[in-house]
Write a structure and sequence with these properties.
heterodimer, A: alpha/beta, six-stranded mixed sheet, disordered N terminus, B: six-stranded mixed sheet, five-stranded mixed sheet, 26 strands, binds flavin-adenine dinucleotide, binds iron/sulfur cluster, binds FE2/S2 (inorganic) cluster
């Protein structure tokens, strides 16, 4: 795949190996191989290794990366905020799989833990990627409630518990991009294919009994690129750290569009 | 002298922060035709509002006959009579409209059988002035903050509001007359610096939970607005009132919402006793948060804590129907599994009171304008500056916030800020020339931090500060502990002058950003410990072992403090407001649950 992205800095080199200063007997040594790239110097990206004692820190991979930043190299950059899997900041590629670092336990990974930025996204620095196109796809599906007028009694729209249930598994998306950045169709057509995250959200509004623009939404998606680049490869669903099922949402969209025809 | 190129951008209004408060203000302003920029260090849906679980309060009467006046009473009682009653009236009276508006925006609230917004029981909320438990907290399962924040962002997209995402606001620009003219911010993506000029700057930067070692707040809750305001000489108000949530997961501090107790969960000690029945015979596990947190701490102090070190308590929900858990508390079951390795359908969750919310903040009036307090009263506003949300102290929460009143505070005061601008400003009005000296001072401070070559790392100072706050400014406080805490924080401020930064680049330099955040945390921490030291009474979340009673005669007043650049703290006070419009004010009385 790399040949599509070959440029001056595309060759990732092996970097240095650092060892944390032991504070006593080392109980749980673990090595993190972390992708490093600083746009300000003219060097190629490299993989630095940091060997630390897991018993010095909290159990999650995010705890470990923060520990490395605090104690070994404060120049490492990555996004993080909530540390409980709800803000979607800390998505990264962990030993080959897109995950939220704050939900993964270091001890669950055998051997060296490989930490890379989300795949096929422009890297800004270290683990920080440029998410703009991902956000643009989200905006493109007009992700807001569309109704011609507010409820007549001036109160809430009525929605039965059964209709509300249809939104479960959809509205919880945290826009972490783990799914889209694991989707081969999204890699190859990032400009035209909306990707699983935006499509899941598109379906969230199609499925909402309060929304009046179901048809308009479906018609917009009925396009060989926006929706039909999905070839049901299922990577997205496997990647979602919130256990959502974008592939299923996409299948539902295709089915609803078929019924329109 | 610094030699940074800056780009000047002009707006009618700048909102700093894209949490619930900032987004509601932004979209209101955009809808009213103001050229508005919303600056946020995080992508909007990553703001900490996303983590709110339990719900948002409003007397909708969807479960039982309710009245905003009961909500008004409960909030005042919850605040231990430190909340300003005119502000509380404002909030509670507007609550119903505010929540219905959110639903109309598309928030996927859970539903009652009739298809109305689902409402659950929350602590301190009652029907008919304490007679029985109210179901007033409107919920989207246990992901209400997520549901609201996403809907507000979606509405901002609809109104095409202008965002500056991953821009970090460094400091406020002031005119020679002390007015706020704008803000200097850095675009983290490419390191470019901007001066944003506007008629008004609205601070909506959230709380400062990260001044403590263990908290339910996100890493990004660093009191940046508090720090920025303090540095231009604005007063910080009621900072000693830090809410400890009774149920943070033991060890990690991750929140288990009050919704759990609202849905029937209860606490036990090592003897398996439901001890809340002793401390709050009526409300029991749903007493106000300060009361429950103190009760848990007392159980632990009495040797009745659970676990190997007898230092925490248990929260049970396994008796609740599994379907109810799955439908209404799915997020919490997941948190308990991932962070405590507990299956909530079978085992109790280990919990401990954990720092959760800052009742204090930048002193603001009912119009959200930041005010100066001198000689015992509010004597003027600081032109050009407003504050809303957790960053502000209006004060609607007084000495103790009721659960689900913060989300309400965000949207109501976000609305009010937008309305106040609409009533007093004109889109496109001419802006004064930026005060060059102020901009230079800001860039100099920035440059000093950027090239800091001292020998103490950001994390070292941060750890010291967090340790001191945790030890010395906890659930129970004494003069001795607070004096020690104050000394430690002063020392951290001293150490900050000797800070070291390793990353000299400007692109996504989180070493630098964390150093700037630390400075803001230090201002917030210092104000907290200093005000706590001064307040010689126990009220709401501020519990002094050496002054156990509430002292209305001397202390029914707001603390305000001013922090000088050399870390000197000056105090002033102003009285609690009791005047109300459409409801009788509630005179102080003893607070029992
Ligand atoms: C775990 C948890 C659960 C909660 N549950 C509930 C609940 O159920 N009900 C309830 O009512 N309340 C709840 N609360 C409280 C409530 O969620 C918060 O008080 C509220 O969300 C704060 O919102 P805010 O808009 O003021 O700030 P935040 O949501 O924290 O947003 C702050 C914004 O400011 C921006 N910002 C900060 N500094 C800068 C800077 N220097 N430059 C640029 N941008 C900056 C950030 O990017 C962010 O967008 C909960 C709190 C926690 C911690
Ligand atoms: S199922 Fe569709 S969206 Fe998901 S990974 Fe495959 S191609 Fe991509
Ligand atoms: S669907 Fe899942 S993986 Fe995709 S953005 Fe949403 S939460 Fe992340
Ligand atoms: S830090 Fe928020 S999802 Fe990991």
């Amino acid at each position: 795949m790399a040949e599509f992205f070959l440029n001056k800095h595309s060759v990732v080199k092996q970097g240095e190996h650092f060892y944390a200063k032991p504070t006593g007997e080392i109980k749980q040594p673990k090595t993190f191989a972390i992708y490093r790239w600083n746009p300000d110097d003219d060097k190629n990206p490299c993989i630095n290794r940091y060997t630390i004692d897991l018993s010095d820190m909290g159990p999650k991979i995010l705890d470990a990366i923060i520990w490395i930043k605090d104690n070994m190299d404060s120049s490492i950059s990555f996004r993080r905020s909530c540390r409980e899997g709800v803000c979607g900041s800390c998505s990264m590629n962990i030993s080959g799989v897109n995950r939220l670092a704050c939900l993964e336990s270091s001890a669950d990974y055998a051997g060296e833990i490989r930490i890379n930025p989300l795949p096929h996204m422009p890297v800004v620095k270290d683990l920080v990627t440029d998410m703009q196109s991902f956000y643009d796809h989200y905006s493109e599906i007009e992700p807001w409630l569309q109704t011609s007028k507010a409820p007549a009694d001036g109160r809430e729209h009525r929605q039965s518990p059964a209709d509300r249930k249809k939104l479960d598994g959809l509205y919880e998306c945290i826009l972490c991009a783990c799914c889209s950045t694991s989707c081969p169709s999204y890699w190859w057509n990032p400009d035209k294919y909306l990707g699983p995250a935006a499509l899941l959200q598109a379906y969230r509004w199609v499925a909402d009994s309060r929304d009046e623009e179901r048809k308009k939404r479906l018609k917009y998606l009925d396009d060989k690129f926006r929706l039909y680049r999905c070839h049901t490869i299922m990577n997205c669903t496997n990647a979602c750290p919130k256990d959502l099922n974008p592939a299923k949402a996409i299948a539902e969209l295709k089915q609803e569009i078929n019924q329109l025809h | 002298m610094s030699s940074y190129e800056t780009t000047q951008l002009d707006y009618d209004i700048i909102v700093i922060g894209a949490g619930g408060a900032g987004l509601r203000a932004t979209l209101g302003l955009a809808a009213k035709g103001f050229k508005t920029a919303c600056i946020s260090k995080l992508f909007p849906t990553r703001s900490h509002t996303v983590a709110a679980q339990g719900g948002i309060s409003a007397a909708l009467s969807n479960v039982e006959e309710d009245d905003w006046k009961y909500h008004f009473y409960d909030t005042i009682k919850g605040s231990d009579w430190l909340g300003d009653q005119d502000a509380i009236e404002n909030m509670c009276e507007r609550a119903e409209r505010a929540v219905l508006e959110l639903e109309n925006y598309g928030v996927p609230f859970s539903r009652t059988e009739e298809g109305k917004i689902y409402q659950r029981a929350f602590g301190g909320m009652s029907i008919e002035y304490g007679k029985k438990q109210a179901h007033r907290t409107c919920a989207a399962a246990d992901r209400t903050g997520h549901a609201i924040l996403h809907a507000l962002y979606q509405q901002s997209l609809r109104y095409k509001a202008e965002f500056f995402i991953e821009y970090f606001a460094i400091d406020l620009i002031t005119g020679e007359d002390g007015s706020c003219q704008g803000v200097v911010a850095i675009n983290m993506m490419d390191g470019s610096l901007y001066t944003f000029r506007a008629q008004k700057v609205v601070l909506a930067t959230g709380g400062y939970g990260r001044s403590y070692f263990s908290c339910t707040s996100a890493h990004s809750c660093t009191g940046d607005g508090t720090g920025m305001a303090a540095r231009i000489g604005a007063p910080l108000q009621d900072m000693e009132f830090v809410q400890f949530h009774p149920t943070g997961i033991y060890g990690t501090g991750i929140l288990v919402s009050e919704a759990v107790r609202g849905e029937g969960g209860y606490l036990t000690n090592a003897e398996g006793e439901r001890f809340m029945e002793r401390y709050a015979p009526n409300a029991k596990d749903l007493a106000s948060r300060d009361v429950v947190s103190r009760s848990i701490t007392q159980e632990v102090l009495a040797g009745k804590g659970v676990g190997e070190n007898k230092d925490h308590a248990h929260l049970h929900i396994h008796h609740i129907d599994a379907n109810v858990i799955e439908e209404r508390l799915p997020g919490i079951s997941h948190h308990a599994k991932v962070f405590a390795d507990v299956d909530v359908t079978r085992e109790p969750i280990p919990i401990i009171p954990t720092v959760h919310y800052n009742m204090g903040g930048v002193s603001a009036n009912n119009n959200c304008e930041v005010v100066n307090v001198k000689n015992g009263k509010i004597n003027s506003i600081i032109p050009g500056l407003m504050a809303i949300g957790e960053a502000a102290c209006v004060s609607v929460h007084g000495a103790n916030r009721l659960g689900s009143n913060s989300l309400l505070d965000l949207v109501v005061f976000g609305q009010i800020a937008a309305e106040h601008c609409a009533n007093t400003l004109k889109p496109g009005a001419t802006l004064p020339t930026l005060n060059k000296k102020s901009v230079d001072d800001i860039l100099n401070r920035f440059d000093q931090v950027r090239y800091a070559k001292g020998d103490i790392s950001v994390s070292e100072i941060r750890n010291k500060m967090q340790g001191a706050m945790q030890r010395n400014v906890g659930v129970f406080r004494t003069e001795e502990l607070l004096a020690e805490g104050k000394k430690a924080i002063m020392q951290c401020m001293q150490d900050y002058k000797n800070i070291s930064i390793n990353d000299r680049s400007l692109i996504w330099n989180s070493d630098l950003i964390e150093a700037l955040e630390l400075n803001n945390l230090l201002y917030s921490a210092l104000a907290t410990v200093a005000c706590a030291y001064e307040r010689k009474e126990s009220r709401g979340a501020h519990s002094r072992e050496d002054y156990k009673q509430r002292d209305d005669e001397n202390w029914m007043k707001h603390s305000c403090c001013y922090i000088s650049p050399d870390a000197k703290v000056n105090f002033d006070y102003h009285p609690v407001r009791f005047e109300t419009k459409n409801v009788d004010s509630i005179p102080p009385k003893e607070r029992v649950y």
